[in-house]
Each structure stands twice: as structure tokens, then as C-alpha cells.
């Protein structure tokens, strides 16, 4: 392994990593903003909204992300009214095409993840909120969304990690993120082993940061839950000697 080459190309890989992090964070944030209202409508009693959102999530979860990226990047330019509209100034840029595709794809998965969390909210908590006179909007804000998001947090953290790895597909539309930068360096140095091992270690570092962040967030959101230590329950659980003494007193 050529350690000198790794040290030499590391600044270039870090520069690509910054674009990877930017794409991931922005697409995840936009996806979450889209997914929250969609998840609420997905669980609503109105079938028109529920079925329309189901179709959206089915299409984006049922087709490869790479195909979606190609359709937006290459396909938008084939539509005449798009080329003649203001939207073309955005859709002709590979960065915005990647960001739009990743956001819509992430929103589809996040919608179903949040839907599962909302469905798992205990009915007793909702009934208690109704008994306290909370309005529908207040129940959503104070009960349904906080509890549902906490229940969905492990699955959502996994989706964020998947989005990080999926951001490597942006290199197929000329974006020089981490993987794209690595491929460019390999084409110049003919040393794929050192370059892609370094890129893989950077991806692992980013994954560790994401997992650690969501682990801390999950513990913070569950801090109100008190775990009962069995060793502290000695008063409520009499020992064998106490039971024998009590039985002797009853016998006498």
C-alpha cells in the first residue's frame, strides 16, 4: 500500500466528502419536511389523500434511485415546456437534479417510516389527550408526532445512513462528491486500492457520526422513561427469611 499516495490525495477526498455531507444533510432535511405532512395525511381517514400518497411512495420505493436520477437529469431536458420554463435554470444543473431526486426518494421512505411510528402510538395516550380537551392539532403536536417520531427513530436513522451511501450515485451525473472524486483520482493515478480504501474509511467515519448522533437523540427523547432497578425492589419483594417468619407468626 502506497501511504505517500494516500496522504497526497486525502485533501481531495475530504473536499469531495464535504459535497457528500452537504447533499446528504440537505436532502434528508428536505425529505423530512416533505414527509411529516405526508405521513399525517397517509394516516388520515380521507382515502383520496391516503391513496395518492401511497402511489407516490410506491413509485419512489419501487424503482431504483439511479433510474430516478437519470429520469430527472436526462429526461427533463427532453420536455419542451420544461426547457422553456423557469424550472430549466434549476433542472439543467446536476447538483439540483441530484438534490431533488434524493429529497423525493428520501421523503417517500421517511413517510412510510413515520406512518409506522404514528400507527404505533398507544391509543390510551391519544384517548387521554382527548379527555383533557386537546384539539386535533394540539394532539398531533404534543402527542402523536413526538411519540411517533421517537418510535420511528431507529428506522429513520438507518434511512439516513442509506441516504449517505446513496449519495455516491451523484457521481454518475458529473458531481464530484466523495466517490466521484475517488474515480477521478484513480483515472489519474491508476491506484484504485489506496484511493477507494481511503474513501471507504471516510464513509465509515461519516456513518459513525450519524449513528452516534441518533443514538444520543434517542436517549435524549427517552430520558423521561425511568428504568426500574430490580435491586431497589427489596422492600416490595420480601426475602425467604421474612416469609418464613411471617408464616411462623401466623401459625402461633
TrEMBL record:
Cellular compartments annotated: Cell inner membrane; Cell membrane
Topology with respect to the bilayer: Multi-pass membrane protein
Highest taxon of the lineage: Bacteria
Transmembrane segments: 20-41, 53-76, 195-217
Region listing for Disordered, in residue ranges: 224-252
Keyword check for Secreted: no
Listed name of the protein: ABC transporter permease
Annotated source species: Phyllobacterium sophorae
Amino acid at each position: 500500500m502506497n501511504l505517500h499516495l494516500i496522504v497526497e490525495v486525502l485533501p481531495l477526498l475530504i473536499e469531495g466528502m464535504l459535497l457528500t455531507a452537504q447533499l446528504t444533510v440537505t436532502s434528508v432535511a428536505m425529505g423530512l419536511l416533505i414527509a411529516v405532512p405526508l405521513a399525517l395525511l397517509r394516516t388520515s381517514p380521507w382515502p383520496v389523500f391516503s391513496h395518492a400518497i401511497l402511489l407516490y411512495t410506491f413509485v419512489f420505493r419501487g424503482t431504483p434511485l439511479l433510474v430516478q436520477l437519470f429520469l430527472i437529469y436526462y429526461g427533463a431536458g427532453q420536455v419542451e415546456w420544461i426547457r422553456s420554463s423557469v424550472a430549466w435554470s434549476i433542472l439543467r444543473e446536476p447538483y439540483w437534479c441530484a438534490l431533488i431526486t434524493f429529497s423525493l426518494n428520501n421523503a417517500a421512505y421517511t413517510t412510510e417510516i413515520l406512518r409506522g411510528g404514528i400507527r404505533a402510538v398507544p391509543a390510551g395516550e391519544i384517548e387521554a389527550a382527548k379527555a383533557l380537551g386537546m384539539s386535533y392539532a394540539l394532539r398531533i403536536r404534543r402527542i402523536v408526532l413526538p411519540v411517533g417520531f421517537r418510535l420511528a427513530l431507529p428506522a429513520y436513522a438507518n434511512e439516513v445512513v442509506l441516504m449517505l451511501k446513496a449519495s455516491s450515485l451523484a457521481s454518475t451525473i458529473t458531481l464530484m462528491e466523495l466517490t466521484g472524486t475517488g474515480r477521478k483520482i484513480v483515472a489519474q493515478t491508476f491506484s484504485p486500492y489506496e484511493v477507494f480504501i481511503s474513501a471507504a474509511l471516510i464513509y465509515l467515519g461519516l456513518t459513525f457520526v450519524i449513528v452516534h448522533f441518533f443514538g444520543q437523540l434517542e436517549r435524549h427523547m427517552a430520558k423521561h422513561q425511568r428504568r426500574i432497578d430490580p435491586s431497589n425492589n427489596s422492600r416490595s419483594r420480601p426475602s425467604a427469611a421474612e416469609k418464613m417468619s411471617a408464616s411462623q407468626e401466623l401459625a402461633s
